[in-house]
Amino acid sequence: MRLKSYAAQTHQGPYLQVNEDGYEFDFENHLYMVFDGFGGSGIGDRAVEKLKGEIKSFYTNLSDDPNATMPLYYNPRNLLEGNALLNSMMNAHQNLFKRNSDQPLNQRAGSSAIVAAQSDSLMVLVGVGNCCAYHYRQGTLSKIIVEDTLKYLSKNQFETRFRSSPMSAIGMYPELTYQMREVRLLEGDKLILMTDGLYGAISDEEILHHLNRQAPDSQDRINSLLKLSNSHGNVDNQTAMILEF
């Protein structure tokens, strides 16, 4: 399945001075990544940059070798790409957790993330923490990676943007808790990956409207979603990626 159009945007938001979010495209290896880092200026943002390189390098080495031994995880039901993707994220997680263990609490970093890898018409997605992913097909929008949320853990009715909080993240706890999904792509499908600075201030109906409407390109769709999120009171970093097939 050919990627026909793509776009991504990351921004510190209307109030923050540092951006700990990030994204990465690797078209040669069909690898797509969105991150929501935390830890503070010079900590979370640097951790995200390091995670990009570690995941990409580890994934490339494993996915290029069909006879590679998966060092951290193996499931015979998964494609090579799925097993390689999970091994890459677990390796990056272990590295960051080890670095954190040598640091005082105020110097530790972590990151929520969604990393997606494509193999022909199949897209494998792994989500950690409070990023989310949607699949759009023929006018219908469905969430395929669900963010960590406080919605079901408290009786308090938080505003939407205060409900998301990473209960697991890369580098956060000894074990990495994740969601893994596979999507069989059809022509006309769209995937949208987002951090909570975007989805936290807008509804699924508003996201669907912006995917349905006529637009010059994917970048225009993202820019309009970012503006809408800010107009609804976003106070966080915000990142989105759209992949159109």
Number of strands: 10
Name the structural class. Answer: alpha+beta
| Residue windows where pLDDT falls under 50 for at least 5 positions | none
Q: On the 0-100 scale, what is the average pLDDT?
A: 92
What portion of residues is helical? 25-40%
Oligomeric grouping of the chains: single chain
Q: Please count the helical segments.
A: 5
- Give Rg in angstroms: 17 Å
Reading the helices and strands in chain order gives: EEEHHEEEEEEHHHE
What is the name of the CATH class?
A: Alpha Beta
CATH topology: Phosphatase 2c, domain 1
Question: What strand order characterises the main sheet?
Answer: 1-10-9-6-7
Largest sheet: 5 strands, antiparallel
| CATH architecture assignment name | 4-Layer Sandwich
Number of domains: 1
State the separation between the terminal residues, measured CA to CA: 7 Å
Gross morphology is globular
Under CATH, the homologous superfamily reads: PPM-type phosphatase domain
β-strand percent reads 25-35%
Written overview of the protein:
This protein has 245 residues and is α+β, with helices and mostly antiparallel strands. The protein has a single domain (5-244), classed as PPM-type phosphatase domain (Phosphatase 2c, domain 1, 4-Layer Sandwich). The chain is 28% helix and 28% strand. It contains five helices and ten strands; from the N terminus they run βββααββββββαααβ. The chain has helices at 44-63, 80-101, 196-199, 204-212, 218-231, and strands at 5-11, 21-26, 31-38, 110-119, 122-128, 132-137, 140-145, 179-184, 190-194, 238-244. Strands 1-10-9-6-7 form a five-stranded antiparallel β-sheet. Strands 2-3-4-5-8 form a five-stranded antiparallel β-sheet, with helices on one face. A hairpin with a 2-residue loop joins strand 6 and strand 7. The longest helix is centred in the middle third of the chain and has 22 residues, at 80-101. It is globular. The mean pLDDT is 92.
